[in-house]
From TrEMBL:
Alphabetized UniProt keyword annotations: Cell membrane, Glycoprotein, GPI-anchor, Heparan sulfate, Lipoprotein, Membrane, Proteoglycan, Signal, Transmembrane, Transmembrane helix
Membrane topology: Lipid-anchor; GPI-anchor
Source lineage: Eukaryota, Metazoa, Chordata, Craniata, Vertebrata
Spans traversing the lipid bilayer: 520-540
InterPro entries associated with the record: Glypican (IPR001863), Glypican_CS (IPR019803)
Family: Belongs to the glypican family.
Localisation per UniProt entry: Cell membrane
Source organism superkingdom: Eukaryota
Gene that this sequence comes from: GPC4
Gene Ontology biological process terms from the UniProt entry: cell migration; regulation of neurotransmitter receptor localization to postsynaptic specialization membrane; regulation of presynapse assembly; regulation of signal transduction; synaptic membrane adhesion
PROSITE patterns: GLYPICAN (PS01207)
Protein name: Glypican 4
Functional summary from the UniProt entry: Cell surface proteoglycan.
GO cellular component: cell surface; extracellular region; plasma membrane; side of membrane; synapse
Length: 545
């Protein structure tokens, strides 16, 4: 007995593993896997060997649990960002679509009250205009310049018939008339200015909404992390190996956690540069939406602008007709009976009720573009550097709490002690010397590379939209600047003449009133219907003003 005393004294005291066992069972694992006291740890493959509270089954299940915890941590931090972009995209998309619906309804109501049956007979022309605008916004292959040019050419054909009801026009003759749209400018400068406004506003609106959708999708795909086997070992060692030593309340050292997370999120770190460039380009386009490319200020008064163009046509109908007759030839005069019937059919509804501008919808989707842009700009600024900040945010998370531990009382991967290694840089290439995670820097993650490319493409499209240039969403793999409608302006050097709005229309009132006598005198030779048409429009304009 006396000889055996030194041997008994050499055996370390058996540590109670009841708390480790309780927490293990609380995770949903079987109690039978967990020993009640320390056992020999030669069976452990990742955690430090020696006396341990973990069986082989516990280490294996903790390995799966650490991978699950890591995924949840990334998803939870990314989920807020994903939800932000998803909800803002939905709100912007809803706003833009409702704005178009309101503008179409406003024009339809206004023209129906003003022109009555005459508008109903030609309403498909305006309906087609809004169909094409909606189709463009949702990503249709629509060239805005060509579409708007076609609209004005068709409107000229209809108007030319109305101001010359005593003549018979064949389809070939009207086709000849439409060729003079650009040369004669029968609608004044309205088509040119409206084309610039519509093109720039729709390009910016569509691109911005698409950018929100791309950001949403990138966050969704990149946040679905799948750690490598080497990453799984590092996660287990950091998160649950201290449990095996009975250190259930000890948190990882902050720099230790940082290295593990940067190793496991090496590919996500490479996303940061393109992500920040993308966010900056979104903020640039947001500024355009608040200023010269504001689609709300373009679409809200579009009915007044088109009506103003019709007024210009009426004022210049005699000169336009004479020049068309010179270029296309003198049309045939209708017989007296048919001419009288044509005059009767071209008249306006005399029961005219002035349009009240206060009836115009002032908002779409319960908000305004300015409020939407102000909100999303703040969210975009908060989203910058998200991916490079992700490792630190996970380590500072309440569950990890690595940022709140005392330096000498934290888990360093093998014991409760100081962590001596420096923190590695962000991104895949910097992990070559990561002391905690073995990372193959020659094999970048394919999904991440695809998202980097998607961001790069979208950034280029944003820059084009910022300059007012049309972009194509049909081929997202194409990094070209895009071709199509839109003649933009470089950065802040937009000419003030492009800022065409309702006040400019109102500014023409005095000039038009002064020209009333001149226009009337020049119109004596017109038919009775054309004269009534002109007088009616001038009277209508005064009532509007």
């Amino acid at each position: 007995a006396a000889c055996s005393l030194p041997l008994l004294a050499a055996e370390p005291p058996s540590r109670n593993c009841s708390e480790v066992r309780r927490l293990y069972v609380a995770k949903g694992f079987g109690q039978g896997d967990a020993p009640s006291h320390e056992i020999n740890g030669d069976h452990l493959k990742v955690c430090p060997q020696g006396y341990t509270c973990c069986s082989q089954e516990m280490e294996e299940k903790y390995s799966q649990q650490s991978k699950h915890d890591f995924r949840i941590a990334v998803v939870e931090l990314s989920n807020h960002l994903q939800t932000t972009f998803s909800s803002r995209y939905k709100k912007f998309d809803e706003f833009f679509k409702e704005l178009l619906e309101n503008a179409e309804k406003s024009l339809n109501d206004m023209f129906l009250r003003t022109y009555g049956r005459l508008y109903m007979q030609n309403s498909e022309l305006f309906k087609d205009l809004f169909i094409e605008l909606k189709r463009y916004y949702v990503g249709g292959n629509v060239n805005l310049e060509e579409m708007l040019n076609d609209f004005w050419a068709r409107l000229l054909e209809r108007m030319f018939r109305l101001v010359n009801p005593q003549y018979h026009f064949t389809d070939e003759y009207l086709e000849c008339v439409s060729k003079y749209t650009e040369q004669l400018k029968p609608f004044g400068d309205v088509p040119r200015k409206l084309k610039l406004q519509v093109t720039r506003a729709f390009v910016a609106a569509r691109t911005f909404a698409q950018g929100l959708a791309v950001a949403r999708d990138v966050v969704t795909k990149v946040s679905a992390v799948n750690p490598t086997p080497q990453g799984e070992r590092a996660l287990l060692k950091m998160m649950y190996c201290p449990y095996c030593r009975g250190l259930v309340t000890v948190r990882p050292c902050y720099n230790y956690c940082f290295n593990v997370m940067r190793g496991c999120l090496a590919n996500q770190g490479d996303l940061d540069t393109e992500w920040n460039n993308f966010i900056d380009s979104m903020l640039m386009v947001a500024e355009r939406l608040e200023g010269p490319f504001n689609i709300e200020s373009v679409m809200d008064p579009i009915d007044v602008k088109i009506s103003d163009a019709i007024m210009n046509m009426q004022e210049n109908s005699l000169q336009v007709s004479q020049k068309v007759f010179q270029g296309c030839g003198q049309p045939k005069t209708l017989t007296q009976g048919r001419a009288a019937r044509s005059v009767s059919e071209s008249g306006f509804n005399s029961r005219f009720r002035p349009y009240n501008p206060e009836e115009r919808p002032t908002t779409a989707a319960g908000t305004s573009l300015d409020r939407l842009v102000t909100d999303v700009k703040e969210k975009l600024k908060q989203a910058k550097k998200f991916w490079s900040s992700l490792p630190g945010n996970i380590c500072n998370d309440e569950k990890m709490a690595a940022g709140r531990v005392i330096e000498d009382e934290c888990w360093n991967g093998s014991a409760k002690s100081r962590y001596v290694f420096a923190v590695t840089g962000n991104g895949l290439a910097n992990q070559v010397n990561n002391p905690e995670v073995e990372v193959d820097i020659t094999k970048p993650d394919i999904v991440i590379r695809q998202q980097i490319m998607a961001l790069r493409v979208m950034t280029n499209k944003m820059k084009n939209a910022y300059n007012g240039n049309d972009v194509d969403f049909l081929d997202i793999s194409d990094e070209s600047s895009g071709e199509g409608s839109g003649s933009g302006c470089e950065f802040q050097q937009c000419s003030p003449e492009f800022e065409f709005n309702v006040t400019e229309v109102t500014g023409k009132t005095n000039k038009m009133d002064k020209n009333t006598n001149t226009s009337a005198a020049a119109s004596i030779g017109l038919s009775q219907a054309a004269l009534f048409f002109s007088i009616f429009f001038l009277a209508m304009q005064r009532q509007w003003r």
